[in-house]
Amino acid sequence: MSTDTIIGIDLGTSTTEAAIIRNGKPEMILNFDGEVITPSVVGVDADKNFIFGDKAKAQYLMAPEDTVIEVKRKIGTKEKISMDGKEFTPVEVSAMLLSHVRDYVSEYLKEEISRAVISVPAYFDDLQRQETVEAGKQAGFTVERIINEPTAAALSYGIEHMEEESHILVYDLGGGTFDVTLLEMFGGVLEVKASSGDNKLGGKDFDECLIQWLLRQFRSKEGIDLQKDTAAMVKLKEQAEWCKKELSSKDSCRIIIPFIAQKNGNPVALDETVRVSLFEELTKELVERTHVPIDVILADSGILPGEIDRILLVGGSTRMPMIGRDLEEYLKKRPSRAVNPDYAVAEGAAIQAGIIEGTISGEDSLIMTDVNPYTLGIHALSDFSMNYMSVVIPRNVTIPTVRKNIYSTSWDGQTEAKIEVYQGEADDVRQNHFLGEFVVSGIPYKDAGEENVEVEFAYNLNGMLEVKAKIVSTGEEAAVKINMMEQALQEEEEVDVTRWKDSSYAKQFRTVIRRAERRLKNVEPLDIFYRLDLEDALYELKRALIEEDLEVAEELEEEILDILED
């Protein structure tokens, strides 16, 4: 086997799987326990060694403070994760898990593996994608491609149905995320038409509905609130997940947890019977939440429900019978189980890996396109708003793509333009996700509207963005690659500067601060860059006063006076 082997990895909220292409077909890889499925759990055992998968999951009941579950839901956040009394970032824990995958795959294949295609939810934003790539790098992988999970699942289906011409809806309900994607297959081409989803909806939320019901029942019967009892909550979580799976094939399920609490010095047990009808009533709203993304992709693609030829169910949570019934009722078509819901994403990632490395080629190869799931644009001024989201790449445009817009100067003598990049669907940029910014300078000094700046967005197959700006009359350029990992690492924590008056130097700078604050109240709406420059300088001055840094404060005072006189 080549040393350039690329594997496919499905890095899931609940479980993680890996696959490889052999003889033109995907083959699932076994972990150290001889299993395909590895629980996405990381822990530290009694000997201070890191443990993974089933071993870590078994420990969770006894040592939840030394065990991490569902880390995927924290990717893209600044939330710290505690384990063995130490703090880790979501990227670091994900990297540990991926490193474990790399170890067992290398052992299984009897060669050192360092290249991978890793799947992510289609609705992951740029930061979440960047952090997934960073986790892969920290684990020792060269991440060749980030592939959207529903697209990977469709590849798994498409490799066996090359001649098919059809519209396919992939409904992917995993442990922590939900994606829905509409694709068209024709002549060996797999074209993604539209994607949408909900990164906060998955099987764990169905478990949580059951947990909350059990808590209410126990509180009502025994007068005891278990929510602050960590050990009890771990037991409830385990039993709720087990019960959910039991109800996929049974009409009812009895949950018994002996010694879950004490009352008047005596042990108390939890004993409840959960019927399918109750579970479905408790989780009805969660199922209905999947309808909104479905409506979005149908509207964006222009495909009618009657034109859908096949609905593929992906993700372990689609095993709940109510999911299939709801889809059949909503779209008037019975869903298909033509792919393995647990393996399809890893298989599809491996197929993508095979296409990249050349082990799948010629007649066996699928041509695949994908789309960007979010609208991308910049902060601009319009006749109606100071905070207008000017769209450069609409959502669900086929990628890779390059799009350009032309913008004019907003006021007389404008010599620079700050390009602020956002991702999201709101018309107001303040409601969208800020990605990054840069400044293009050297605009010739002319009247408002007489100079133009061309802004170019280039969006690649990994769902990552590069932005350029060019002054049309001079050709002067500036650019930024939106690398949210670097931004997150470099970002300084905001300081509360309201206490600047407590500084021993406050009296010396009170006058200039008051002048700046009065000016900010009277800045013309269109002077947005003037306002931002003054706000930034004022913040830094107050921060310098809090830190008792007189030298920096004096420099900032001069800067503010220059701005006030501008």
Overview of this structure, please?
By secondary structure, this protein is an alpha+beta fold. The protein has 4 domains: 278 residues, 2-Layer Sandwich (Nucleotidyltransferase, domain 5); 82 residues, ATPase, substrate binding domain, subdomain 4 (Actin, Chain A, domain 4, Alpha-Beta Complex); 115 residues, Substrate Binding Domain Of DNAk, Chain A, domain 1 (Sandwich); 66 residues. Helices cover 34% and strands 29% of the residues. It contains 15 helices and 27 strands. The strands form 7 sheets. Strands 1, 2, 3, 4, 10 and 11 form a 6-stranded mixed β-sheet that branches. A 6-stranded mixed β-sheet has the order 17-12-13-14-18-21. It has a 4-stranded antiparallel β-sheet with strand order 20-19-23-24, with no helix packed on it. A hairpin with a 2-residue loop joins β15 and β16. The longest helix is centred in the N-terminal third of the chain and has 20 residues. The termini are far apart. About 2% of the residues have low confidence.
